[in-house]
Specification:
Layout (H helix, E strand, L loop, with lengths): L16 H5 L16 H15 L4 E7 L14 E7 L3 E8 L2 E8 L4 E7 L2 H15 L8 E10 L3 E10 L3 H4 L5 H11 L10 E5 L6 H11 L4 E6 L2 H4 L3 H9 L21 E3 L30 E6 L3 H4 L5 H15 L8 E7 L8 H4 L4 E6 L3 E2 H8 L8 E2 L1 H8 L19
Parallel strand pairs: 6-9, 8-12, 8-13, 9-11, 11-12
Antiparallel strand pairs: 1-5, 1-10, 2-3, 3-4, 4-5, 6-7, 14-15
Length: 422
C-alpha cells in the first residue's frame, strides 16, 4: 500500500481499469493532504485488506450502549493504530486472518467493523466483540430513534440515539378531555389498523405535541421505528434525499412483543462485495445486545417520520418552492413515492386547522388529526390543585411553570390576519 503525502487529491482510493480486469486483487492507493486527520488514516488503513482482496469478508455493527470499560477489541488483538480525540477513540487492530476497526464515542456508544479471510471468521470476531461490549438491555423507557439530516460530506445520513419516552397512561391527564379520545385511539393503532399515512398534531406552542410523539414512540415500539427529520426544508427540496428516506434501509427490524421496554436487536451490515463502511453517521450508536438475528428472517418494522414545526410547509397559502415541497410530502404519504413502503408521517404545527392547506386535511389522508389545545379552567385547576395563576385556558407548559413555582412568561400573540402596516 502506498500513501503519498500530497496536496492534489482527496480521494481515499483509486482503481485502474487494468486492475478491474484482474479480478479481486485491486491496487490500493491513498492520497492525504493537510485537511486529513489521524482518524482518517485509521479509516483508510481499515479498508486496505478488504480492497486488496486479502480479507474479502466485511461485517459491521453499531452498539448504542457499551458496558463500562468495554474495549471493543477481542482478546489477544494486536493494536496497530490508536487515535484519541475529544469526542471519540479509534483503534485499528489485527489478528490471525482478520482486521478490526473499533470506535468508541464519548456518548457511550460505539461501532465495530471486521474484515476477515472468511465469512465464518468475520462473523465470529464481530459477534464476540458485540457480546462482550454491549450493555444489557434494561427495562427502562428509552427507545432508539433515528435522526435524518443531509450531510454536506456524506449526503443523506441517518444516525440513532436512545431517547427517553413515557407511556401514554402516565401523561394522559396532561391533555384536555376534548382531545383525549382521539389520542387514545391513536396510541392503540397497530400495523394492521394503520389506515391513512399522515398524523397531524396542531395547536399553540407549549401544549405538549412533542410529548405526544414521545409517548407514541413508546406505545408503538413493538412494530414501528420512529425517525425524526432534522431538516425538512432540505428533505422536500432534494429528491435524492427524499428517496433515501422513503426507501429506508433493510436494517429496520422488529423488536418483538416484549413487555418491558424495547429489546435491542442488531443492525448488522454484511458486505460480500461492498466496503466495510456505511452511509450512516459515525457519531451514532445503533442497537446492541444479542445480534445473531439474520436480516432475511426478520419482520420489517414500519417507520414513522416525524417532522416538527412545519408551519410554512402546510399553510393554505403555500406557493412556489413551498408548494412543491408540499406536493412531495403528499406524494410520500399516499403517492407513488410511498407505494410499497410502510411509512407514516407525523407533522406538528402551531397553525390553526382552518389555516392548513385543504390537501393536508382532506378525508382519508390522515390516520389522525388532533387539535392539541390548552386545558380549560376547570381541568387546569384540577391538574394543578389550585386556581392560583389559572386563566380561562392554560397550556401544559404554563401549568408546569406554576407547579414549580415559576411565573409563566406572558406573551402577546401578534395578529397575523391584519392588513398592511401604514
Amino acid at each position: 500500500m502506498s500513501i503519498p503525502h500530497q496536496n492534489a487529491s482527496r480521494s481515499k482510493s483509486s482503481v485502474t481499469s487494468e486492475s478491474l480486469d484482474q479480478g479481486t486483487g485491486l491496487p490500493f492507493v491513498v492520497a492525504l493532504d493537510d485537511s486529513d486527520t489521524p482518524y482518517d488514516v485509521v479509516d483508510a488503513l481499515a479498508l486496505a485488506p478488504f480492497t486488496t482482496g486479502e480479507q474479502p469478508w466485511a461485517f459491521g455493527a453499531r452498539i448504542d450502549r457499551l458496558r463500562p470499560g468495554a474495549s471493543l477489541l477481542p482478546a489477544g488483538a494486536r493494536v496497530l493504530r490508536a487515535v484519541v480525540e475529544d469526542s471519540r477513540d479509534s483503534r485499528l487492530a489485527a489478528g490471525e486472518g482478520w482486521t478490526l476497526r473499533a470506535v468508541r464515542w464519548r456518548g457511550g456508544g460505539g461501532e465495530v467493523t471486521v474484515t476477515a479471510v472468511s465469512e465464518e471468521l468475520a462473523r465470529g470476531v464481530l459477534d464476540g466483540v458485540v457480546r462482550g461490549a454491549a450493555a444489557e438491555p434494561g427495562a427502562d423507557s428509552a427507545v432508539t430513534m433515528g435522526f435524518w439530516y443531509l450531510s454536506t460530506r456524506r449526503g443523506p445520513t441517518r444516525t440513532t440515539r436512545k431517547a427517553a419516552t413515557t407511556s401514554w397512561g402516565s401523561i394522559r391527564r396532561n391533555y384536555a378531555s376534548s382531545t383525549i379520545g382521539a389520542l387514545d385511539r391513536l396510541m392503540t393503532v397497530k400495523r394492521e389498523t394503520a389506515f391513512g399515512r399522515l398524523i397531524m398534531l396542531n395547536g399553540p406552542a407549549g401544549t405538549g405535541k412533542t410529548t405526544i410523539l414521545r409517548a407514541l414512540a413508546h406505545e408503538w415500539r413493538r412494530w414501528c421505528q420512529v425517525d425524526c427529520v432534522l431538516d425538512p426544508e432540505a428533505l422536500f427540496g432534494d429528491p435524492e434525499y427524499l428517496m433515501e428516506v422513503a426507501i429506508g434501509f433493510d436494517g429496520d427490524q422488529d423488536d418483538g412483543d416484549q413487555d418491558d421496554g424495547d429489546q435491542d436487536d442488531g443492525d448488522r451490515e454484511a458486505a460480500g462485495s461492498g466496503g466495510p463502511g456505511s452511509h450512516h453517521d459515525d457519531d451514532a450508536g445503533d442497537l446492541g445486545g444479542e445480534q445473531a438475528r439474520e436480516l432475511d428472517g426478520a419482520r420489517r418494522r414500519w417507520r414513522l417520520l416525524v417532522i416538527e414545526d412545519c408551519d410554512e410547509l402546510i399553510r393554505g397559502d403555500t406557493r412556489g418552492s413551498s408548494g412543491q415541497a408540499l406536493s412531495r410530502l403528499l406524494n410520500l404519504t399516499d403517492g407513488l413515492v410511498g407505494q410499497g413502503r410502510d411509512v407514516l408521517v407525523a407533522l406538528t404545527t402551531n397553525e390553526e386547522l382552518v389555516r392548513l392547506h385543504p390537501a393536508i386535511v382532506r378525508p382519508g389522508r390522515c390516520l389522525a388529526q388532533v387539535e392539541v389545545g390548552a386545558l380549560p379552567y376547570d381541568e387546569a385547576a384540577a391538574w394543578l390543585g389550585t386556581t392560583d395563576g389559572i386563566g380561562p385556558t392554560t397550556t401544559l407548559a404554563e401549568l408546569f411553570a406554576l407547579r414549580d413555582g415559576r411565573t409563566p412568561v406572558q406573551t402577546t400573540r401578534p395578529d397575523t390576519h391584519s392588513g398592511l402596516y401604514l
